[in-house]
Amino acid sequence: MKLPQPLIEATLIRRYKRFLADVILPDGETSTAHCPNTGSMEGCAEPGSPVLLSRSMNQKRKLPFTLELVEVNGLWVGINTMRANSLVREAISLGVVPELSGYEEIRSEVRYGSNSRIDLLLSGAAGLCHVEVKNVTLVKGEKALFPDAVTTRGQKHLRELMQVVLTGGRGVIFFVVQREDTLTFGTADSIDPNYGKLLRLAIQNGVEAFAYQAQVGAQEIFLTRRLPIELGDPLRYG
């Protein structure tokens, strides 16, 4: 997935109110950028971090800059959660995700469940496949973790995916790890234990879980490999 060009180098002053980030531009001017990430961005919002911004050409937009990438330990991390859906959609179309091959059509933001929209709905001879995409930026000890904040919305999505499977469909939760310093994936049970419990329950009830690592660069982001999912003993969380 190509990123908008050119991206603008800046330095992070602070991230606040979830959707705002103050930055210092190359000319020394201070500006406020839109931060498209509802999580805590733990480990990815340190003041003084180098960041890359995209600029909107929409003259009516109040904040022309969008925070796209943050440098952590010398590597770029993709914090724009809006990019994750496009990244997975493109990867499926190109055959990069063999687990989701064989579908002729991919639709985005299709209504389902209890007043929700599924990120990607795949359809074909094999039937329908509901795919919920989650962006992952939190890493501890080379293990990618989700979520980085309590997510009642994410819990709702797991329940709805279980209902999809219960009614005979295929439900997939797809974690996109937008950083390259990870070896495995797991749930951040110390942050949101209910999400961890629900994910274990969902997997036990037929929801498929995939975690893919992305190579993140200043010009392009693309999925590279599937990560092992380590959730611990399911009986402990039952």
Compact summary:
This protein is α+β, with helices and mostly antiparallel strands.
Q: Helix fraction?
A: 10-25%
* Number of structural units classed as domains: 2
* Estimated share of beta-strand residues: 35-45%
Order of helices and strands: EEEEEEHEEEEEHEEHEE
N- to C-terminal separation? 38 Å
CATH architecture of the largest domain: 3-Layer(aba) Sandwich
Describe this entry's structure for a reader.
With 238 residues, the protein is an alpha+beta fold. It is built from 3 helices and 15 strands. A 6-stranded antiparallel β-sheet has the order 3-2-1-4-5-6, with no helix packed on it. A 6-stranded mixed β-sheet has the order 7-8-9-12-14-15. A 3-stranded mixed β-sheet has the order 10-11-13. Helix 2 packs parallel to helix 3 (193-204). The protein is globular and about 55 Å long.
List its salient traits.
alpha+beta; OB fold (Dihydrolipoamide Acetyltransferase, E2P); Trna Endonuclease, Chain: A, domain 1; 2 domains; 3 helices
